User: Fold this.
Amino acid sequence: MITLDGLVVPDTTASSAALEVASAYHSPALMSHSHRVYLWAAALGTQYGIPYDAEQVFVAANAWAR
Assistant:
């Protein structure tokens, strides 16, 4: 079973920058959606043993066009 404790936001410069830009342009609802997108992708990758780059997935989840 996968828990949220095992799915952490990557602590990288790119992830921090993506979060900063997204916070400046996204509504609170879209920010929440972006976080859910990352968590679902990370959870599915973990559950099915699919290797993924957490930083790339997090940045992509926060890179919605306005």
User: Anything to note?
Assistant: The helical segments are 13-25, 28-47, 54-61. The mean pLDDT is 92.
